[in-house]
Amino acid sequence: MNRVFSICLLTGLMTATASYAAVPVPSLKPGTDVPQSNVRAPGVRYFEGAVPFPALKPNHDVKVVRKPVIVIDPGHGGRDPGSIGVKGTYEKTITTAAAKELATKLNKSGRYTVIVTRSDDSYVDHDDRLRIARTGQADLFISIHADSTGNKSARGASVYTLADRAKGRSKRIVNNQNWILDVDLSVQTDPVGDILVDLAQRKTESQSDAFAEILLSELKGKTELVGNSHRRAGYYVLLAPDVPAVLLELGFLSNAKDEKLLKTKSHRAKILSGVERSIDRYMDER
Known about the structure:
The protein is an alpha/beta fold. The protein has a single domain (69-285), classed as Zn-dependent exopeptidases (Aminopeptidase). Helices cover 41% and strands 14% of the residues. A six-stranded mixed beta sheet has the order 2-1-3-6-4-5, sandwiched between helices. The termini are far apart. It has helices at 2-21, 91-109, 126-135, 167-176, 190-219, 256-262, 265-285, and strands at residues 69-74, 113-116, 140-147, 157-162, 225-233, 245-252.
């Protein structure tokens, strides 16, 4: 009885082994990793019914050597003139000129890959400005503006970073635009997904604040600065949760002296040399 059972068991094992051996197994050299797909299946909450927007800065064991990507965003444009100065100067005219001049400086240095969200007098939707930054895998986003206020004596430059009260809007954009961060939200529950977005925001907020402080230190002495020059707001162009971003107000077009200065290339060059130096410092220190 035991002998018959052993023979049957051995026969079954041989049959199973033969069947298993018939399945081809890829042969890999020692130390070779199996290639992993970067495509993530849409999840229920963050990517429902849509194709996920490109992931930024994926985590790889091997670092890819590349130039830092700087995105320069001239505010307003086209149908949106922005602020109008005392002498009729359009904000979009100043921001377009300043963005081109800064891009020229950065390109000449050879240190960076420079992307400008618009190069002519056209209007670019806020969503598209952020998409340009994320698709370009931006390391830094600088939106250039010129301020205006009812107080005609107010003058000087200022720098804005994202306000805490606006972070909820940032999460909604992640949902609406189906963004993928460094973390895979598609496989997370709602509470965990929120925590991961918060973590990404905190890192980005810290980097944005660090650049803002460097920028203001470089602008000091090159142009007038307003009091409380590091300000916080919920501007749409600051909402990307994984792209360090600042909004630079070059001065007040509602102030006759600032308007006159901002119309001159020489004064803009003084400001933009400070911006270039601040980018260099930020990239060296991060």
